[in-house]
């Protein structure tokens, strides 16, 4: 009996192996992380498939596009109903175009245009302040029949507490939610509606006697603004949400307790005197948990990143502006480094860098930053029985690590597949692991957690022979790998064909948009791990 047991153990040792995949230092373009596009689908491709301006070749590849629409862009001047043609031309087309190249969309809906901001949309009255003229007429008695649609400063400041405006906003959001809440291309809603540009302040409109442009310093209590938060929760119950914070706004902590993520503007503001990096952000973050000044303190605010996203938008027009010697607000190299470090310490996922040029001086910094931003999944080790009898089990023990700074917020199941030498896929096996739970370390001084998955899969209806074992993180209910892993092994596509990253942007012809779309839909994300011999 002892001899038999020894033989079995020896057989297992001879047919099992431990694999340590080589780690990758490549920038990974994955859903919901990285730099975003602003008001365009892609900016760095010479093909320019969706954008009629010169490409910004220094901008990194992106997975997420960020769009904003004012209320008056989605309805005619005299009809309260949302306009079907406008919705199709604007929101529907953006979602369709983004989906065609495997990108996600973040949307903000707004009600108050910046004072003096130009209006390019031909659907909008040239004197409009952001809300449709029919609503201006309902609120203030002008805007139709040849009267001006423009809001005075006082009208703009007081608008957000008027019951009729709140009611109409709830209707507006509800209709949008019915249309878009279940759209899988919609990554999240950036909750606007309140304030200038939907940014929860009254910049350009507040009285000179006000202490600041903040809502609180212009007569607003949190009770006045809660209806907008509650309305977006009701309208978009299935869509993740983020909301902008300010150093006096109790409404953000009210929202984060309802599952919202948070975001802030002006990343990289190091101006002399008061600035966001040294004053605004620390004060805002502190206020979120301060029960002495905040009516809705969120004592778990600093842990919310584990369930909901943190996003930033840069100050100024681009990173090129940060670098420009002619710019009085230019940043030093050390300030750029500290800016990126701050975003990482807050466990950020997305940075709206406004699709602008990135100077050569910052390229390495940006690469290092993008390799930490959001999630980054690394397969460290795999134990597997390489020789399997038909109708027996394939045992896979895999060890994973998230070397980024945030989790992913939607599960992409770990899936193993067996692939023949000619590329035929003979079997898929889906793990029960949920990668949403794969958190990184809380901070840079702590080691990342290690996640060990033990799977076993029955080998049946497969011919005797050798097969490649591949791993991919797939879109739910599909066999399409959507997450690139931070390992350097052979790549294959969803069809089992070899995938080689060899195309240069210079190889494309201008306006060859169909080729770009096809390429984006045939990216290989399956990683070959080892060979399995079925006997």
Could you walk me through the main structural features you see in this protein, from its secondary elements to its overall organization?
- It is a single chain.
- Helices cover 24% and strands 21% of the residues.
- With 535 residues, the protein is α/β, with parallel strands linked by helices.
- It has a domain of 173 residues: Immunoglobulin-like (Sandwich).
- It has an eight-stranded parallel β-barrel, surrounded by four helices. Strands 11, 13, 14, 16, 17, 18 and 19 form a seven-stranded mixed beta sheet that branches.
- Strand 6, helix 7 and strand 7 form a beta-alpha-beta unit.
- Helix 5 runs parallel beside helix 6 and helix 6 packs parallel to helix 7.
- The radius of gyration is 26 Å and the shape is elongated.
What secondary-structure arrangement, pairings included, does this model have?
Layout: H1 2-15, E1 16-19, E2 34-38, E3 64-70, H2 84-100, E4 104-110, H3 133-140, H4 153-158, H5 163-180, E5 186-191, H6 222-235, E6 241-244, H7 250-256, E7 261-267, H8 276-288, E8 310-314, H9 319-323, H10 333-345, E9 350-352, H11 363-370, E10 377-385, E11 387-388, E12 393-402, E13 414-419, E14 425-430, E15 450-458, E16 465-474, E17 481-483, E18 491-492, H12 513-520, E19 526-534
Parallel strand pairs: 2-3, 2-9, 3-4, 4-5, 5-6, 6-7, 7-8, 8-9, 11-19
Antiparallel strand pairs: 1-10, 10-12, 12-15, 13-14, 13-16, 16-17, 16-19, 18-19
Helix pairs in contact: 5-6, 6-7
Protein name: DUF4832 domain-containing protein
Pfam families: DUF4832
Domain DUF4832: 345-479
């Amino acid at each position: 009996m002892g001899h038999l047991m020894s033989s079995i153990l020896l057989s297992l040792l001879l047919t099992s192996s431990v694999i340590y995949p080589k780690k990758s230092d490549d920038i990974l373009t994955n859903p919901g992380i990285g730099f975003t596009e602003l008001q365009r689908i892609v900016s760095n491709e010479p093909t320019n498939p969706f954008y009629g301006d010169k490409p910004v070749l220094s901008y990194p590849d992106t997975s997420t596009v960020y769009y904003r629409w004012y209320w008056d862009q989605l309805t005619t001047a005299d009809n309260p109903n949302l306009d079907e043609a406008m919705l199709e031309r604007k929101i529907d087309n953006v979602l369709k175009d983004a989906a065609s190249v495997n990108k996600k969309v973040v949307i903000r809906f707004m009600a108050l245009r910046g004072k003096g901001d130009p209006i390019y949309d031909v659907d909008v009255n040239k004197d409009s302040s952001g809300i449709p003229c029919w609503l201006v007429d309902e609120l203030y008695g002008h805007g139709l029949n040849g009267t001006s649609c423009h809001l005075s400063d006082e009208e703009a400041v007081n608008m957000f507490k008027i019951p009729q405006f709140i009611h109409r906003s709830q209707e507006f959001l509800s209709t949008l939610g019915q249309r878009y809440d279940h759209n899988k291309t919609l990554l999240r809603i950036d909750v606007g509606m309140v304030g200038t540009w939907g940014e929860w302040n009254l910049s350009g409109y507040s009285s000179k006697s006000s202490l600041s442009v903040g809502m609180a310093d212009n007569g607003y209590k949190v009770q006045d603004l809660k209806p907008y938060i509650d309305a977006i929760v009701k309208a978009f119950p299935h869509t993740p949400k983020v909301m902008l914070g300010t150093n006096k706004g109790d409404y953000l902590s009210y929202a984060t307790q309802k599952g919202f993520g948070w975001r802030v503007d002006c990343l990289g503001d190091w101006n002399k005197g008061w600035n966001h990096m040294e004053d605004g952000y620390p004060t805002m973050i502190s206020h979120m948990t301060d029960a002495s000044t905040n009516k809705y303190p969120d004592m778990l605010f600093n842990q919310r990143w584990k369930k909901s996203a943190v996003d930033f938008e840069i100050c100024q027009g681009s990173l090129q502006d940060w670098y420009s010697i002619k710019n009085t607000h230019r940043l030093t190299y050390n300030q750029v480094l500290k800016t990126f470090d701050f975003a990482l310490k807050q466990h950020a996922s997305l940075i709206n860098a406004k699709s602008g040029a990135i100077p050569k001086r910052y390229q390495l910094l940006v690469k290092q930053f993008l390799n930490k931003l959001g999630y980054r999944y690394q397969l460290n080790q795999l134990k597997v029985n390489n020789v399997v009898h038909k109708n027996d089990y394939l045992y896979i023990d895999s060890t994973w690590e998230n070397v980024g700074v945030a989790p992913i917020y939607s599960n992409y199941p770990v899936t193993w597949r067996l692939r023949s030498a000619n590329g035929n896929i003979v079997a898929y096996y889906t793990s029960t692991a949920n990668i949403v739970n794969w958190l990184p370390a809380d901070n840079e001084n702590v080691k990342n957690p290690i996640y060990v998955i033990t799977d076993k899969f029955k080998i049946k209806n497969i011919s005797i022979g050798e097969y490649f074992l591949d791993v991919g993180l797939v879109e739910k209910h599909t066999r399409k790998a959507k997450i690139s892993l931070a390992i350097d092994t052979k790549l294959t596509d969803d069809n089992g064909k070899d995938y080689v990253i060899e195309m240069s942007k210079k190889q494309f012809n201008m306006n060859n948009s169909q080729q770009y779309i096809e390429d984006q839909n045939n990216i290989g994300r399956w990683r070959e791990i080892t060979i399995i011999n079925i006997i």
